[in-house]
Amino acid sequence: MVISLKERLDGDLKDAMRNKDSIRRTVLRTIISEIRNAEIAKQEALDDEGVLVVMTKQAQQRRDSIEAFKAASRSDLVESESAELKIISGYLPEQLSEDEIEVVITEVISQVEAKGSSDMGKVMKEIMQRVRGRADGKMVSAIVTSRLKEM
């Protein structure tokens, strides 16, 4: 029997509480709370794809915080956020390499017949549907922008 991602998170939260793993417990509680908030906003239960969207947003928030804390020379907070990001990343699909992202971008640009920067929205929409949860949107956007400017 295949268990859903939400069930896995709940089980892992119980394990973290039993093992007195405070960081893991806090991160999992936060994620589960965000999932519930998203379900309330949508007024329906999230499937695994919806849960992944929430978790990807949480991971991105941690990455943004790490950058901000590095800029402010707050290494203590960088370590804390990095530990949380590591826990969240354990639930996300394996990230695509830059080369794999380049292949997807090339396919999408030819598929939607993009002519230049004005087609950025069409291209990004299709790419993000294909790589959801497996690639950082900022990196994808930067590559697409440079590719479309070359056209």
SSE blueprint and pairings:
Layout: H1 5-18, H2 22-42, H3 48-71, H4 75-89, H5 98-111, H6 120-131, H7 137-149
What can you tell me about this protein's structure?
With 151 residues, this protein is mainly alpha-helical. It has 2 domains: 5-89, Hypothetical Protein Yqey, Chain: A, domain1; 98-149, Arc Repressor Mutant, subunit A (Orthogonal Bundle), CATH 1.10.10. The chain contains 7 helices and no strands. The chain has helices at residues 5-18, 22-42, 48-71, 75-89, 98-111, 120-131, 137-149. It starts with a helix and ends with a helix. The mean pLDDT is 90.
Main features:
151 residues, mainly alpha, Hypothetical Protein Yqey, Chain: A, domain1, 75% helix
Structure summary:
This protein has 151 residues and is mainly alpha-helical.
Largest sheet: none
Number of strands: 0
CATH superfamily of the largest domain: Uncharacterised protein YqeY/AIM41, N-terminal domain
Roughly what percent helix? over 70%
Number of domains: 2
Straight-line N-to-C gap: 49 Å
Strand content: under 5%
Query: What form results from the Cα inertia axes?
Result: globular
CATH architecture of the largest domain: Orthogonal Bundle
| Helix and strand element order | HHHHHHH
Could you say what the CATH topology of the largest domain is called?
Answer: Hypothetical Protein Yqey, Chain: A, domain1
